[in-house]
Design a protein that fits this description.
alpha+beta, membrane, signal, transmembrane helix, two-stranded antiparallel ribbon, 18 strands, transmembrane, globular
């Protein structure tokens, strides 16, 4: 007996490939099939690693991230670490909590803690989790993060759907207030399991253009439920940039019960919390109880403008070019000065 995702897959496969008179693909049917495949992952537990591809020219800008991803009907929990910090991201009941512990290098047991509470809109790119970077959700421009396919399509412009080389292909433009030129996104979806296999994001402006490619290299199939286990990210200023980073999933368990206790955050004692929902900040005890009066939430000193590719630093490449040009000009001026000075002394 076919499960819901496989039912949609069979119907769409017949629709696309059976005859020349078949009905055209529709966004509604593909979104329904993809949503069914995504929702067939009722629960999930796995470990993952995200690290730079050594040959990448941007390897230094990609910190290694290791984490544990857990999903159940209760919510999603992601515990991950990179650099000198550990993070816990908890999403449930349309609320997102994020706890960070920043460790001092001289004393691993000494750390500063801080937490943030916000509405559950998008998953931060910083988690590098297989749920987002594995294309169970999709990258968007602003706010930075990942959203469902149905959300992305509802917000996109000039969208088309077609069949190409055995894949379902969706193309669309994503526009936001920060960029005059829309980003162009191309999504490849497998008709076998209706999960995405590749996403190409292109962003152009008056002085530069960049391409980000998200690609799934392998899936795990557990009782006809698919989950990405290897994913690759490429970034650069060409149409086909070299790989930048890769993600690997291990210890994957699908659709087995996970204790509800896993979907609670244990705060260190006296943790400051920025509550973006209430617009206040306060301190909580280890059990999450407030132990200080609420104060008005102060805005960040320098609000960051969203960027399309947050895990890399394309502006640093421009900075390097400027530094090199300035250095060459200064050397040229110095040589002229020395020649003029030597001529006078002679």
């Amino acid at each position: 007996m076919l499960r819901k995702p496989q039912f949609f897959a069979a119907v769409l496969w017949i629709t696309v490939f059976s005859s020349a008179h078949a009905a055209p693909l529709t966004f509604e049917s593909v979104i329904q099939a993809h949503q069914a495949a995504r929702e067939s992952i009722i629960s999930c537990s796995c470990r993952y690693t995200w690290e730079a591809v050594e040959s990448s020219p941007l390897a230094d800008s990609v910190p290694k991230t290791t984490g544990v991803f857990e999903k159940s009907p209760t919510g999603i929990r992601i515990d991950y670490s990179h650099s000198n910090s550990t993070f816990t991201l908890l999403r449930k009941n349309n609320i997102q909590q994020r706890l960070q512990k920043k460790y001092q290098s001289a004393s691993p047991k000494t750390f500063e803690a801080g937490a943030e509470i916000d509405t559950d809109q998008v998953e931060s790119p910083s988690t590098r989790s297989p749920w987002s970077w594995g294309l169970l959700t999709f990258p968007i421009k602003s706010p930075d993060g990942f959203v469902t396919l149905e959300h992305l399509i509802s917000k996109s412009l000039n969208k088309t759907i077609s069949q190409r080389s055995g894949q379902i292909v969706i193309e669309a433009d994503l526009k936001d207030e920060y960029e005059p030129t829309p980003a162009h996104i191309t999504i490849f979806i497998s008709p076998e399991h209706f999960l995405a296999t590749k996403v190409i994001m292109k962003l152009s402006s008056s002085d530069r253009s960049f391409t980000g490619i998200y690609e799934i290299k392998s899936f795990s199939n557990q009782d006809n439920v698919y989950f990405p286990t290897e994913y690759l990210y490429s970034f650069g200023d060409s149409d086909n940039p070299p790989p930048t980073a890769k993600g690997t999933v291990t210890s994957l368990i699908l659709n087995k019960p996970i204790s509800n206790q896993r979907f609670q955050i244990n705060y260190p004692g006296s943790t400051p919390v920025r509550d973006k929902i209430s617009g206040t900040q306060y301190i909580v005890s280890s059990d999450g109880m407030r132990i200080s009066p609420e104060e008005k939430l102060l805005p960040p000193m320098t609000p960051e403008k969203p960027t399309l590719f947050p895990e890399t630093k394309p502006q640093s490449l421009t900075t390097i070019r400027v530094i090199v040009i300035v250095a060459v000009v200064l050397i040229f001026i110095a040589l002229i000065y020395m020649r003029v000075r030597n001529a006078k002394l002679a």
